[in-house]
Amino acid sequence: MKKRLQSLFIMLFIALSAFGQDRTITGTVTGKDDGQPIPGVSVKIKGSNVGTTTGADGKYALKTSLKTGTIEFSSIGYLTQSRSLASSSINVTLDTDSKTLTDVVVTGYTTQSKRDVTGSIASVSGEKLKNQPIQSFEQALAGKAAGVNIIQPNGVLNNPPVFRVRGFNSISLSSYPLVIVDGIPVFTGDQSGNSAAGNALGDINPADIESIDILKDAASSAIYGSRAANGVVVITTKKGKQGNTRVNYEAWVGSTKAQNLTPLLNAAEYVQIKNEARTNIGLAPAFFLQTKSDGTQVDTDWYDYAYRTATSQNHALNFSGATEKTSYYVSLGYSKQE
After folding, report:
1. Model-level pTM?
2. Domains of the chain
3. Tens digit of pLDDT for each residue in 207-229?
4. For the chain: N or C, fewer Cβ within 10 A?
């Protein structure tokens, strides 16, 4: 009885060892067009984590304990193929994927699908920029793009704002980014030759802008070289669309008034405070209210002289259209801000 049990255990051990024994699948992967070996091909058993890649000679060796299944061969630029695990030697010939090879990757001055972009790019549509009481389109970008800081240094008319992409990039030089309008670099900053401010970008009508793309990282702006050290702002203007001539007119009128001003003392309160200060140091009051010729007291509100309500207006007129041979977009703009 003991001998039979020993024999049974020995046979069961041999069967389990044979069942769990790994086998090695080998082969060579070549290209159908030239018959040359293809290195770096991914060789993987479908539905498992077992896989390897081909060497420089196109050969591979894959260990597995599976007896049945499917092995996949895939590589960039080639069609994926599948083979059965029935054999221990599997040679594969891959066909080129012509569709993949003809795909166009567009960078720099051209366009690219947003889902394919790997760099840091912020996009702002032209609809978010127009019909705003601004002196130039840069002011309208405030708060609309992450990592972009727009600061208006003062209220001087046509004064360029401080435009920074991802903070300071230079201690002594300008931090203004490179601006590209329809593929052409343009001047930036204050280009005035006298004491009056002159924003070089102030003549770009925000209503004529189709979109603005801000390239913030090195990968996105690499094509522009050292000029892109402070980032790149790519502006695309509107173009005529297929069909009859379209006439579009947009206008707005608004008013500007200083808000949140600190309240000032009137004449009586001012005289009282000044006399209290003299009394506190042991002096007699020396400030008194003045009267006009009609007997009323002089009480001037200096805010009325320093500030006033300013009126602003903006008008934009454009003609656009396109045919099979040409397209056109002509615009006129008028802006007045007090």
Report:
1. 0.52
2. 15-100 (2.60.40.1120), 114-238 (2.170.130.10), 251-337 (no CATH)
3. 888 888 888 777 766 777 777 77
4. N
